[in-house]
Amino acid sequence: MIRSDVIRLYKTVHTWTGILTGMALFITFYAGALTIFKEPLARWASPPAAHMVAVPLSEAATLIARTLEDHPKAARNFQLHLEQDDLRPERMTWRERPTDAGDHDELSARHYAATFHADGTAHIEEVHPSQLAEFIDVLHRVVGLPLDTDPHRWIMGVVVSLYALALISGVVILLPSLVKDFFALRIGQNLKRMWLDSHNVVGIISLPFHLIMVLTAAVFAFHDGIYHLQDRLFHDGRLSTAWEMRRETPEQPSPRTPSELLPPAELVAQALAVSPSLEPTMLQYIGVTTPRAMVRVWGHDPTAISPRALGGFATLDPYTGEVLNTDYLPGKQDGAHTTVSSFFALHFGTFGGTPVQWAYFLLALAGAWLFYSGNLLWIETRRRNGPKGDHPPAQRRDTRWMASGTVGVCLGCVCGISLTIAAAKWLHGHVDNLAAWHQYVYYAVFFGSIAWAFRQGAARAAIHLLWLAAILTWTIPLTTLLAWILPSLGLWGHTSVASLGVDLTAAVGGLCFAWLARITTQRIHNGMEDGVWSAPTSGAAGRV
User: Fold this and answer.
1) Can you list the positions of beta strands (E) in 311-440?
2) What does the DSSP assignment read for 299-348?
3) pLDDT above 90 coverage of the chain, percent
4) How far apart, in whole angstroms, are the C-alpha atoms of residue 256 and residue 67?
């Protein structure tokens, strides 16, 4: 039996680590839920490009040679897509960053695609793929900060480390009554008890998922530091050199000619010879005019672990077809690389297909609710009660601020993401840098919601922002509907299953927010007048 003083200590740790990280983790989990379906979201937001001429795979080698002759910068890193459809007609694509841009400065990158003119010459066109899904993914990776940089990832690492303490302490608190209260959900007049029961049940059921997220996120946040420490302690500063020497230097280190590249079909055949169950999707060419030219044959393997959403890859020499590396090829990795890939697969949900993706989606949304409800429980615990018949007492300043901050940050995140998704279609063709405008729209709504919550108080603002979340989330399917009804608006509505799934999910999400707005209204106007969530019609004593 755990002593009562130990339980009190762990309860304090759980409360304050949860409070310090709750709002940041709400953003991480809510945005992370959407990035589970990153590809469908990107397709929904991307305009059709039917004007581009589809290039048969048999002519891809000629397209590569002619494109690199006219645009040699593309030789550094370009992709050849093996699958083409109405949403991705481009066969060859690449991107270029300004020389002074950082590795994570996606806003300054310019994207290009290559096809043929009618006379057979290469036609190079700048394209504008949607950066919406990438922006939401950045919000997920760095707890709502605008750029995926090292300092921001370190902040994320600190947040998840504190969250690990909250998880451990929460389990210790529940251990004495775990069997008795695990499935207890006492529904009745005591709303605080009902919220606490719900919080505990959801937390315990989703504990394995949260432990996976904490462990993998901490590794992602500090992996550069881990590699640096490993290099200093075990490799005497030569770790990067060891990686570079894994491939032998050619006997004649002279530039190579793109016209001598092997046909893509032969490269795919070489990869399939190594892994017959691989389903290739893309060839990524790197430094094809240099002595160390290589091509990564990307694909999925339904029988093995995929380290990321794109799957895995085998590295080949694009001129000889020699297999250079299979460390990242699903099903062909050694124990160490399989372990690392498992971290990625567990975090991104890149195993088990669609059922696992939906499970991760729902678990991530449940996690966001867990942080929101945790803050509400903290607020309810610290509210001041007043005797019946008296005027409601003034609530403590820290309680009022935490209530307003919770409502503003959490619901501001929801509203901002919904509006910036819809804006992907409405702003297309009307602004020069749509990727930057996704940031402008999101942060304008996010900070505006926080300001409104502090101006109106948590109770009133919760109603307003929940209805706003419902309306803005409904604008996503309504935008697609308008595209079908009024084509003159310049919008588009894809009819693929993935894109329609985005619209249907948003429609259901809007209904959920509307339902929450209704029950929040009832609680505020029919609940206790001395509560933090009360909204009295006169007087400001209970107002937050």
Assistant:
1) 312-316, 323-325
2) EE-TTS--SBTTBEEEEE-TTT--EEE-TTSTTS--HHHHHHHHHHHHHH
3) 31
4) 15
> In angstroms, rounded to a whole number, what is the distance separating the alpha carbons of residues 50 and 61?
22
| Share of the chain residues as helix, strand and coil, in percent rounded to the nearest 5 | 60, 10, 30
Q: Which two tokens stand for residue 505?
A: 């999910």
Write out residues in the chain with pLDDT < 50, as ranges.
100-101, 241-247, 249-250, 537-544
Structure tokens at 470: 């419902």
Element at 12 (helix H, strand E) = helix 4-35
- ∠ CA 376-541-534 to the nearest 5 degrees? 40
CA dist., res. 145 & res. 150, Å (int): 12
Q: Under a CB-based contact definition with an 8 Å cutoff, are residues 533 and 460 in contact?
A: no
Q: Residue type at 135?
A: F
Q: Which amino acid is at 476?
A: I
pLDDT tens digit sequence for 95-154: 887 654 455 555 567 888 888 876 777 788 887 778 899 999 999 988 888 877 778 888
Going by their DSSP bridges, the two strands 294-300 and 110-116 should be labelled as: unpaired
C-alpha dihedral sign at 449, 455, 457, 463: negative
Q: Residue 340's pLDDT is what?
A: 74
pTM of the predicted protein model:
0.82
DSSP H helical ranges for 175-300: 178-181, 191-205, 207-234, 239-244, 264-274
Q: Per the structure block, which two tokens stand in for 37?
A: 């379906």
Residue among 8, 363, 23 nearest 163 (CA): 23
Residues 6+ apart with CB under 8 A from 437: 423, 427, 431
Longest CA span, the chain: 93
Rg of the chain's alpha carbons, rounded to an integer? 27
Q: Of 473, 481, 458, 480, which is closest to residue 514 (Cα–Cα)?
A: 473
Going by the DSSP 8-state scheme, the letter that residue 488 receives in this structure is G
Cβ(34)–Cβ(476) under 8 Å?
A: no
Q: Give the CA angle between residues 154, 156, 159 to the nearest 5°.
A: 115
CB contact at 8 A, 322 and 299: no
